[in-house]
Structures are given as structure tokens and as C-alpha cells.
Design a protein that fits this description.
Layout: E1 23-24, E2 29-33, E3 39-43, H1 46-50, H2 54-57, H3 68-79, E4 88-94, E5 101-109, E6 112-119, H4 127-139, H5 144-159, E7 163-169, E8 175-182, E9 193-194, H6 201-209, E10 212-215, E11 223-226, H7 248-257, E12 261-269, E13 272-281, H8 289-334, H9 342-350, E14 357-362, E15 365-370, H10 375-385, E16 394-396, E17 415-420, E18 428-433, H11 461-471, H12 481-540, H13 546-571, E19 577-578, H14 579-590, E20 598-601, E21 606-607, H15 609-628, E22 637-643, E23 650-657, H16 670-683, E24 686-692, E25 695-702, E26 707-708, E27 746-750, H17 754-766, E28 770-774, H18 777-786, E29 791-795, E30 797-798, E31 801-802, H19 804-813, E32 817-821, E33 838-840, H20 845-856
Parallel strand pairs: 20-22, 27-28, 27-29, 29-32, 32-33
Antiparallel strand pairs: 1-11, 2-3, 2-6, 3-11, 4-5, 5-6, 7-8, 7-13, 8-9, 10-12, 12-13, 14-15, 14-18, 16-17, 17-18, 19-21, 21-26, 22-23, 23-25, 24-25, 30-31
Helix pairs in contact: 4-5, 4-8, 5-8, 8-12, 12-13, 13-15, 14-15, 15-16
Amino acid sequence: MARYTTPVDLTNCDREPIHLLSAIQPIGFLIAVSTDWIVARTSANIEAFTGHEPGAIIGNPLADFLPRHLIHDLRNRVAYLVAPDMVERLFACRLTEGGRPFDAAIHLSHGQIIIEFEPGTENIGDASGTVRAMMARLDTRPDLTSFYREGARQVRGLLGYDRVMVYKFDTDGAGEVVAEACKPGIGSFMGLHYPASDIPKQARALYKRNLLRLIRDVSSTSVGIVPELDAERKPLDLSLSVLRSVSPIHIEYLKNMGVQASLSISIIVDGELWGLFACHHYSPISPTFERRSVSELFSQMFSMRLESRERRELVEYERRARDISDQLLGAVASDETLLKDPDWLGDILTSAIPADGVGVWINGNYAFSGVAPPSDDFRRIVRALNGTAAAKVFATNHIGSLVDRADHFAKAASGLLAIPISRSPRDYVVLFRSEMRQSVRWGGDPHKPVEYGPNGPRLTPRESFAEWNELVEGKSTPFSPTELRVAETLRATLIEVVLRLADEAAAQRHQANARQELLIAELNHRVRNILGVIRGLVRQSQPDEEAVRDFVNVVDGRIHSLARAHNQITDDHWGPAPLQALMDAEAAAFAAHKESSIHYKGPPVLLNPQAYSSMALVVHELVTNSTKYGSLSGDGIVEIEWHRETGEDLFLTWTESGGPEVREPTRKGFGTTIIKRSVPYDLGGSAEIEYNPDGVKASFRIPARHISEPRKFDSKKVTLAANKRFSHMPHASKEPVKPDLLTGMSTLIVEDSLIIALDAEDILSRFGAEIDTASTPEGAHDALDKGLPDFAVLDINLGDENSFGIADRLSDAGVPFFFATGYGEQALLPAEHRSRIVVQKPYTTHNLARAVEELLGVGGDDD
């Protein structure tokens, strides 16, 4: 703690609370004694009250100056000082036989006993009866406003000051006069606001320790402590002294207000400084110590009653908020359009949380009620809110701290409370509050300053209010913690409303999707029947001529190709289908004995329905031509490659080699026309075909608008092809898996289906693994109890259970593993396992090999 030997300026000090002043007011005297009752220090004005000079007392026993009975009483009072910051009192003490009575205050300070005396009276009133009567009047007040006002009236009636104010601190330390009792003709300070610097943090900290501070006469000269420093070269700590002097800044503040005497009594609620009873008098006045003690007791009782009332009001306020939530829920349940009605929302929400306006943002649409920022600025505010913590109410009394360029609408909307009512991108109901200084008014004509001290005119009510006005420019009244709790309650209600509406909309979408699926299925059935009828007519109508029969077979193949393509794209509700599945289907239908001669290379891509149908005919013609005349008619091969940059066109090449010598046909048939013109004509792309002697080469460019990327779980998750429905298709170009991939490694397979487990065992055994299998979580844990494997494969869904507990145990033990699932993209992993590899069933040699290679970091095919 810093040490000072002279009064200090507490206003601008940013150090820890400073409570050390070496001077006291001249209305009494002070004696500091050690615990062995040897006088250590005195105040310089002791001679005026006792006739003893300070220098004569220092070093002498206290018994030389005080009667034994008084020392006995003082010792008893010291015994009561069992808690920090306690001050004991003793009234009508006689320092000398037949002398005047004194009132004494006793407290402990750093191993010393501080005894303060000031002139008292013989007549000691009935303190308990006085306080009881004061509290009885206080308890009759129905609301907090009249409660504050009655408290001020009772203190003024007890102490006789010209003005008594109830001064309440805000959360940031600024203050407001919320009640006042004063004599007529002196003006009013009611409703005035003051910046936090008027009563700095250090002074507020001291007010929590020393509940009552008295200034009898601002013009009096303080007297010092003799000596200023003790034997340890430390000044006396006067934090709890009833006679201590105050900061000269505070004295100047009172003088500039024309105040000659003051008294303040702390109001402590929930252990914190709620405010003060601030008493002003325009001439010197010194209420007796006994009266001041009664007022302190009243303040403590007032604080307890205030705490009780505030809690009752809080409970009632939150009850009303719940009623409003129920009202909101019931109303929107019967009329969902109310959720988008800002006037209705404004009325119902501002009845729970005071605000000047409401803005509603739902699905990019907005509406306002009351005061609000311009629409462009509201959009900026919503974008900024999306950067705040999700799923929480957000409040600020300074929108300028959230978005820039907020000053031009600050008078209308300076603060906001945003209630998110959906997931990202979030929808909001936003309450706006106007600038605070727009809602503050003078409650009367404050006293004009009498004079300015060396610190200038700021130390006056009017100038202090002006400074407060400047400090709150662009800010609104803050949203209280209670209002934030109520906002969370309202948010839960609004979310419930939104979810209910979303459930209803989802049910309607589900019904619509079901109808759509039925229609698509019926359409598919009818189209396939029509194509079947056409095929039947063509085949039944073929004559005996061989050339015509060949023609019929060609047409039949083309129709069949269209039927297969149509079936594949309607399997997924007329959605995109995998390019590789198209290749597989054509190879399986028309080159079944040559599938091992068709090699694929390219990333998973999906073709939209129009492109899929067109490419089905193109690939069909290429396959049938190659089977009849090209590389697939002999021992040659076909290499099909495709590639694309992200978001760019798809480039596909068909290259034949190893077959009979190729010559460009002399007659352009319909099949050649399909190959050359379908992609440019139907899709807006390009196509080229070259008849090289060593094999046909065809190149195609399919525009990006016809291409879709397959959805994935995660960048690390394994998919065999663009669509899980075709993950079982053969991949003729794959290189054989190395048989030593898992040689000597113990492997745990957790799979609840016997057939699938046997399939996985067979594949992993061919990799060289030593297999242990479990079908339930309990069986897996039993296996782990016997010993940890080198590697594991975990089926996510095990009947009514899952394998996440096993995964946690393996992860903790450092055992590598990956998941497997048959649910495709519906597999949901907990947060701690979302980066894990997931293999889609059914198991194949290649999808398991690829997962093992990626997990263990070994080389392998990565197509």
C-alpha cells in the first residue's frame, strides 16, 4: 500500500485504494494506542478538549489521562471487535471527573487501537424505537420510487440536513439521483446524472468499509496527527476513522455547489455498494454521534429491505416475462405470420424489456417498428451479429463498438439487444434503445456554483452533468443482467416457436417429397413401359433380312441404354448420377466379357440428368463400336480418363489401343452422328473423334453447369465412388492390393452382421492380418481387456448401440482405427472423432485397402 503523510487527491489516482490521510476534522480528537495501552500518537487538537499537549501525552500510559472505569469500558468494547472493519461506540463518556460528556468510537488499525472522541450529550435517545418507527413508515411504501423517497425523508427528519438525496450507482460507476427530500426554495437535483469520476473507484471502495462519512464545515482547517510517522516510519491508516479528513478535491466540489456541510451513508446491497444517502447543508452542521449511529443503523435496515424488494420485483418481473413468453407462444402457434410482424413483436417484447424500437430479420427479409437504424445499417449490424457468439443473446449499449459509421443514427439507436432465433445464417429479433442523453432531463434548476476552485468549473453539478452528457454520447441505457436473463427466456420461447414452425414445414415437405417420389416412380414405370413397348414393336417387326435385323439390334441397344440411364437418374429423385456408374453399366451390358479391358481414371463426378442421358447414348455408341470394330473386338484395351478443375468444365477422353488397325469410316452413320454432335448440340460442349491407325481416340468437353461434385463427410473420409449406390461396381484398372499390407498385425473387427464380418475377415486376411472379431460393444471391450490390437475397424451402428465408446478407448490407447457405415452421409460422428476416416459399406478390397494405406501412411493406389 502506498504511503502518504498529507491529504491526497483521490480523483485521478489509478493505484489501489488509498485510505491514508494524516489529518482529521477539528470537531474531536484521536488517540492511537498500542495493545499494551501505552499512548502512541494523538491528534494535534487534543489540548483544546483535554488540556493536555500532544507532546506530553506521547509515551505515557493511557491510565495517566483517562479514568479507570472508562478504560474498563473501552477494553470491553475492544473485545467486541471480532470482524474486519468493525467500529464500536461508547456514548456519554466522562474523561475527567465532572467534565463534559464525550462520545467515543473504537476500531483496530494495523495492530493499534484507534479511539476517537467528540463532544456528546447526556440525553441518549431510544435508538431501537427510533429505527423501528422509521422502518414502519418505510414499509408502507408500495413501490421502489416511493420507497427511495421515504428513505430520504426519514434520514432528513432524523439528521436535519437541508437536502438528502438517494444516489444510485450504475454498473459503470456513474450515478443518478433517484430520490430527494429538501427544504423549499433551494432547487432540486432529482434525476441528475454524474460521471463515475465524480466519486472515483478508490472512494467507492472506501465507502464499502466505512459506511458513514461526515464533513461538519468545509471551511474548517484539518489538524494533523502527532507525530506524522510511527516508529516504523508509517503514517496512521484512517480508513475507518469517523473524524478523518477528506480529499481537497471533494471539499472543492462541495464549495462550488455552495454546500457548507455534508454527510454520506453507504447503501450496501448483496455485498456491493448500491448507492448513498447524500446529505447537504448550506451552513455548518454536526449531528451528534448518537444520531449519526442511528442513521447508520437505519441505512443498514434500509439496505436489507431494498435487497428484499429488488428480489421480489425481480421474481415478479421474471414471472411477467414468462407470462409474456406463454402469450407469445400461444399467439404464434395459431398465427405464424405474427413472428414477422414487428409492431406486434415490438408491443409484446418491449412490455418485458424496455426498448424504443424493434427490428426483425428473417431469411434476409427485415421489418421495423419504432425507432431503428436505416435498413442498410441494419444489414451491416446483422452481418456483425453473425460474428458474435452463436446461440446467445448479445447486448451492447454502444452500437458503434459493433459496427463502424454508427454515429449518424446513434440518436435513434445507440444500443441493441439481439435475440437469435435460428441457426447460422441466423435470424434475429433486435431491440433498439435510443441515445441515453436523449432520455435524461433536469428535474429542476440545480444550484449555481458559488465559486470555482483551482481545479476549474467541472466540479459543479451543471458542469459535471455536461461531462456525463459527453461521456454517454452515442450510448444507450445499458441492458441489465435481469433483462438479459429475460431475453434468454424469450429466446427459448422464440426458438420453440421457430422449431415448431420448422417441424410443420418439414412435415409438409415430407408429404410433398413422398408425393413427388410416387410421381417419379410412376413416371419411371410408365417411361420404361413405353420404351419396352417400342423395343417390342421394333424386335417383333424385324424382317428376315440380316441387315435389317442388325439395324433392329442397334436401335434396341440404344433404347435399352436410354432406359438404363433413365432408371439411374430417377433412382435419386431425378438428381445427378455418377459418371463412372454410367461407364460400368454400359460395360456390363455390352462388353461383359471385356470388362477387365476397360480402365477408368478420374475423380468422382456427377452428371446432371440431361447430360447423363446424352452421355449414356455417346458411351453406348463408343462401347458397341469398339466391341464390333475396335480394340474390344480383339485383345486391346480402352482407357477412359476424365478431369476437371474446381468449378470448371469436365474433360473426358476415350482412347483405344491394341486392337485391329483402324480406318476412318467412309459412311457417316447415325452412331457417329451421336458421338460427334450430342455433346455440342444438347449440352453446349465440344466433341472430337480421331481414327488413328492404332486406335480410336475421342475427346469431349462437358460444360461445368452440367457437373455436380459428390458430397463428402470430411476431406479425410474415404468414398469409393461418387455415389454410395455404386461403390460395389468393379474397377478394372485397380492394381492388385499388396498381400503384405497388414502382415503380422493383430486386427480387431467390430461388426454386428455375421455375413459382413466374414467378408471383412476374408479381405483383411488376404492383407496378412491376424483377425479378432466382436459383434457387440461388450464383446469388443472384452477383447481389448485381453490385449490391445495393432489396428481396428469399427462399424458405427451396432444394433441399438454404437462403437463410440470403443473408439474413445482405442484413441486413448493410441491404437489406429477407422469407422465403417452403411448409412452413407447420414453417419454422424461426435466432435472428438469427426476427423476420422469413414469407409462406406459394403466392404471391398479396394475401399479397405485405401483406408488402411491412408491411416497407416503407407503407399498405395490413390485413384
